[in-house]
Amino acid sequence: MKAYVKYVIAAAVAGLGVFLFYLSAVSWGQLLSTKDKAMFFLEQPLSVQDAEETVRKSEEEKQTDSEGDGTETMPEFCIWGQKDAVTLTNKNLFREAQANAILLCGNPEVLFEDCRLPARKDSQGCLIDEAVAWELFGSTQVVGKEISYDGKSYVVRNVIAGENMIFAFQVSKAAKSTQEQTEESNSLNRITMQKPEDQSIVDLSAAWGNRYGMEVTVLDVELLRGIGGFCVLPLPITLCICFLCYLFHEWRQQKKLALKIVLAAFILAIIFCLFVLFQSYVRIPDDYIPTRWSDFSFWTLLWEQKREALRMLVQMPKTDLDAGWIQAFARTLAYGVLAEMAFFLWLGVYLLSKLVQRK
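RESULT FIELD:
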């Protein structure tokens, strides 16, 4: 009976470890979805006028580039910010809702996947998430209906998935009073940009500064993806190493040549799988590699840069749109560590049972 209980406990712990690893890998996959975006923080928020001027200049550059003069343009981007706890009203149904307003200046698809509305010059349109739609209308089929905010009516152009109470619209100096422009200007402190595969975030930030004359701080989510991957990979690597040790032990104990060949083939196959795993999923960014092997100050500088980047990610004002990558990173970290702990707990139970059997 005691042996049966031990096997049940060992199986339960092993199953828990596998489940936690699965959750960690899924969360890491969600974190990887940010790799095609570059995110920047503005210590000094932009005015509505400056934001519109920047977008206008970018649109003109794209128009010039389409005419074939070879001018290199910036990728699609959106300058944005968030105002917390604004009041939205449905005057027809006499309903109100508290939401967080996302102020847009640029392409909204950069922030919301497959959502190009409201368009840049659409000062009358807005988008809301499902939570706002249910709160104000009792339905999500509300495209074309009106919402009132701060004395102005907005037409719902799209409804996005989510429960964060989001209301987003394009800012425009032409449609606002001086006081409203000032309030919105204090919120425009973020830039999100499509990241081309052949450009690093550091290169994009430098190009942005050179072209538009404004300094931006990189939000190094790539660092979080690396930390998350470091927490996901140890369990499969540990399992492979333990299995390799077991096979190598069996190979040494085996007397028959045919079985030794089979075991050796298994060992080589696992080593090859480990190599493929590292080759496919473990990538070292270019800015982590020194240009000269003798440049020992590179590592000190890199450490300082990454520590400062981590500090910025922790201390910067958070928005509802940051919740996705923050939660994905937290789950990746927590589930990955717990999965590894579950494995060592299972290993402890297994070794303890073997020790008891020998006695």
